[in-house]
Amino acid sequence: MQQWARFAILGAMFVVAYLLILAWQKDYGQADIKAQQETAVVSHDVSADLPNGQTVATAASDVPQANIATQQAAKNVTAPVSQQLISVQTDLYHLWINPKGGDIVRLELLNHDKNKDSDQPFVMLESDAKRTYVAQSGLIGLNGPDSGRSGRPVYETEKSVYTLADAVPVKTKEGQTVKQLTVPMVLKTADGVEITKIFTFTEGDYPVVVNHKITNRSAQNWQGQMFGQIKRDNSEDPGKSDQGIFTLGTFLGGAWGTPEEHYNKLKFANFNEEKLSVEAKGGWVAVVQHYFVSAWIPGDLKLTQANGQAYSAKLESRKSADEMNIIGFSSPTFNVPAGTTAEVGATFYSGPKIQSELKDLAVGLNQTVDYGWLWPIAKLLFIGLQFFHNIVGNWGWSIILLTVLVKLILWPLSSKSYRSMAKMRVIAPEMQRMKEEFGEDRMRFSQEMMALYKREQVNPLSGCLPLLLQMPIFLALYWVLMESVELRHAPWMLWIQDLSAMDPWFILPLLMGVTMFVQQMLNPQPTDPMQAKVFKIMPIMFTVFMLFFPAGLVLYWIVNNSITILQQSFINKSVEKERLKREAA
């Protein structure tokens, strides 16, 4: 009875782990990825400044509709002829801004490599013939320049290259001094309205503050709204993991949140059918991919006679005419009377999904690090990993120390189970004798067996408890390894140079199989021949299955099995000594 229960739980773990992959693929994988066009309409006069000869695709009519009954063309603007891209480099990234519209058209993460075998930076945003993924923002509405029939406005800048050498020291709220870099872009209308679009970058921070300052020197009232949106095609996720025969897909699509509904996912395929249309103060919109996220967080609206206050933004999603996926926000309509000034802004984040940074930007944004339905356990495991990493500075050793900690916490419960299993092992010869004595009399054999269990104080099902306790931890750690960018390409030692990927030499899975076999030999052996065969096959099945799992997860299982072997060996000897003393007495 006990053995079949153990087999059922082991089999359940095998099936659940397999279903985990299938469910992950269904929920996160992009099954219907449309083929992307290999050509794009290119603005030839802005491409010279992109790295590696990249070109910038011009935006289609994807600017959101304003909250006005009739749309009027914006006033004519004066702009320079040159449209050279503006290069901005900080300690964290290198990005390029298109003066036409002031959109971020390319962003490279300097502290994250393209892949573990490359020293090239990870490209987060780009706009070329192969992929479109850009961050757009501007002013729409009655007088908004982005609503004009002539297309997006062209801003003027003092220079085309900005670095931290141009930054100035500023004091933070905590009293620290950091470097802050501002990139102002100016647009002047023929009737005297000056719009300054200001990008503010802070040393050591990924968020970019984007403000629009409207100075109305005309004789008329100015009216408009700010919008911010992320536009992406249906191309594959460049950050997805490749696990041998398994290509583990992670969620690629839209996401949004409000103070009331913290985290919601929206697949690209559902941008029209399940269209997002929510108005909220303190909300956010994002495009999520494996390990990385891009998000807009609406900011403040400041009029001349009032302090800056957070505005209630409308969060929306849609498909553009050229089948691009667009998710963004728009502010309420605001007025700038003649002779006054107003300022409206938002924060843009594009980078790794670092929970400690995302949680401070908006409620629920840190949940884009999606640990699935076991997120409470996964969160605790990640906190433990971070704690040990701060001490040893290596994620592999952190996994080992975390495993030891988990075993210590579960030690009281597991010890009782292993003690019961040890007693089962001791009485196994007596059970075999009873089986031979009573033969086909199953009723008598069951009665004698239950009497033996009672006399020896053995619970035949208690041996299943360690497996039941390990199952949620195993699955939660899987999600931690798959979703935590901190473990992306994290080396351990020797041949293990990426704990989030499979072992390239399959050494860890083989070691796991050996430890599982040794552990089974310490358990009471089945009396039924068929059960004994299944018992011996289990380590082989799990070894094959673990060949394609992340090395960090297999490492956890090896350490867990090794500690279990030591614990069980000690308890087996202790129980055996107790029985010998009892028999001698």
From TrEMBL:
GO molecular function list: membrane insertase activity
The entry's keywords: Cell membrane, Chaperone, Membrane, Protein transport, Transmembrane, Transmembrane helix, Transport
An example Gene Ontology biological process: protein insertion into membrane
Superkingdom of the organism of origin: Bacteria
Entry's localization field: Cell inner membrane; Cell membrane
Keyword match Glycoprotein: no
An annotated GO cellular component: plasma membrane
UniProt key word Membrane: yes
Transmembrane domains' residue ranges: 7-24, 395-414, 458-481, 534-559
Annotated Membrane insertase YidC N-terminal domain residues: 86-382
UniProt similarity note: Belongs to the OXA1/ALB3/YidC family. Type 1 subfamily.
Official protein name in the record: Membrane protein insertase YidC
Organism name: Acinetobacter chinensis
Taxonomic lineage from the root: Bacteria, Pseudomonadati, Pseudomonadota, Gammaproteobacteria, Moraxellales
